[in-house]
Amino acid sequence: MKTFKSLLAATLLVVPFFGAMAQKSQLRQLNLPLVQTKFTADPAPYVHGDTIYLFTTHDEDGAGGFEMKDWLLYTSSDMVNWTDHGAVASLKDFRWYKGNNGAWAEQVIERNGKWYMYCPIHGNGIGVLVANSPFGPYRDPLGEPLVWQKEHWDDIDPTVWIDDDGQAYMFWGNPNTYYVKLNEDMISYSGEITKLPKIKDYQEGPWVYKHGQKYYMAFASTCCPEGIGYAMADKITGPWTYGGHIMNHTTQTRGNHPGIIDFKGKSYCFGLNYDVFRFETSRHAEQRSVSAAEMKYNADGTIQELPYFFDCELNQVGTFDPFRRVEAETMRWGLGLKTTRENPSGPWHNSLFVTDIDEDEFIMLQGVNMGTGAKKFTANVSAGMFGGSIELHIDDINGPKIGTLKVPYTHFKYEELTTTLAPTAKGTHDLYLVFKGTKMQKRNLFNFDWWKMEK
C-alpha cells in the first residue's frame, strides 16, 4: 500500500500539472475523478428528488483485463462530495448465470416506486433486477435474461428512457444499436427487436435521454481511444443524426462510457478514464475511474464540446452540512484509502467504513458549512494497539487546524470519541480530516465509521 505522498511523487511522472497542484493540496483546482477508494466505471447517474444516485460497475483491484463482479452505488446532493454505499447488486443475484465475471455497464431507473436495474452479463444477454429502494436488495423477477440474441455478443450496455407518453424504451449494443419497447411492468417487452442504421462514430455505451424538444443518444465513440459522441432525433425511435463530439477522442484515456443528467438547473456529462490508476503507474490495465463535467447546450440544441475532464468545470451545488451523522466514506478526495464492510481485525460491522488508513492520508470534503460555529467533533472509530489521531484542517491540508481527535486503543471495538473545536471552526471551508499515526505505528492506524459536528 503506497502512502499518499509516494502516490503524489509517482503522479509527477504521469500527470505533471496534477502533481504540482496536489502537492499544494489545491484539490479543487482540477476536475479529478469522483471516487478514489475503488475502481469504478460505466457511470449511470439518476436524479431522484434532490439526490444523484450514481450506479457504476466495479473493476476489481489488481485486475489486468475486465474483472467485474458487482454493481456499486454512490450518492451526492452537491455533485462533488460523494457517499459510498458499496455493492448493491452482483452476479450472484442472477441464479441462472453460473459464471463469476461479466458484470458490465448497467443502468437503473425508477417507475411507480420500484427501481429497475438493467444488467448486461457479457455473452449472456441483458438481465433485469428489481428493488423497492435504490439501495436494494435487488431480486431477479424473471429467472432468465430479458434480452439475449444468442447469434452474436452485441447485447451489452443497456439504456432505458420513459417517454412523455409513458412508453418505455431500452436501447443497447456494440457495435450495432438495438431497441425494444418495454411494457408497463418494465420487465418484459412488446414487438420485435429493432436494429438501428449505423450512427457515425458509434462504438458502444448508448445513453438515451430527452432535453428540451430533442432526443439525444450519447455514446462511446469508435475505439480506440474512445471519446464521447452524440446523435439527435425528433422522435425517440429516430432517425438519428450524428451531432459530433461531447468529448473528443483523446490518448489521455482509452475507453469511455457516458451518462448524462440535468440536476439543479445544470447539465452534466459523466464518463470514465484511467486517471487514478495512472497516479501509480503508466502501464495499462482495466482499473478505471468515473469523472463528471458540467455540459452546455447551444441555442439550436447541439452540445458544446468539452475538453478532457481535467480541464472541465465541476462546481459544487450548494454547501455540505456537517451537523448530522456523516458516513466516513463520504468524501471529495481520499486517495490511498479503502472502503469495505469486512473487518478481519475486529467485530462484525454491518455498515461500510474507511480502512487502510496510513500516516498523512486524508479525507477532503468540499464546501463544508459550519455556519456561525462548530464546537464539537465526534467520530466513531475502531483502533488497534497504538491508535493515532485525526487532525481537522480547513482550506488546505496544511491550513489552519481547528481540532485534533485522539484515537486510543479501543480493543478493536467501535467507540464514539469527541473533541472540542477552535473558535475558527465557522463559515464555509474545505475540510481536511488528516490521519496521524504514532511513533509505534504509521500504517493501518484505525477504522473510521462516521463523524458529525455539533454547534
**% residues in beta strands:** 35-45%
Q: Main β-sheet: number of strands, strand sense, barrel status?
A: 5 strands, antiparallel
Q: Looking at CATH, which topology of the largest domain would you report?
A: Tachylectin-2, Chain A
How many structural units, i.e. domains? 2
In the CATH hierarchy, what is the superfamily of the largest domain? Glycosyl hydrolase domain, family 43
C-alpha termini separation: 37 Å
Shape: globular
Q: Quick check: average pLDDT?
A: 91
Q: Any low-confidence stretches, pLDDT <50, length ≥5?
A: 1-25
How many helices?
Answer: 2
- The whole-angstrom Rg is 22 Å
Instruction: Please tell me the CATH architecture of the largest domain by its name.
Output: 5 Propeller
Helix content: under 10%
Structural class: mainly beta
Strand order of the largest sheet: 1-2-3-4-20
**What is the CATH class designation of the largest domain?**
Mainly Beta
Strand element count: 29
Can you offer a commentary on this structure?
4% of the residues lie in helices and 42% in strands. It has a five-stranded antiparallel sheet, with no helix packed on it. Strands 8-9-10-11 form a four-stranded antiparallel sheet, with no helix packed on it. Strands 12-13-14-15 form a four-stranded antiparallel sheet, with no helix packed on it. It starts with a helix and ends with a strand. The radius of gyration is 22 Å and the shape is globular. It is mainly beta. The chain folds into two domains: 31-311, Tachylectin-2, Chain A (5 Propeller); 326-454, Jelly Rolls, CATH 2.60.120.260. It is built from two helices and 29 strands.
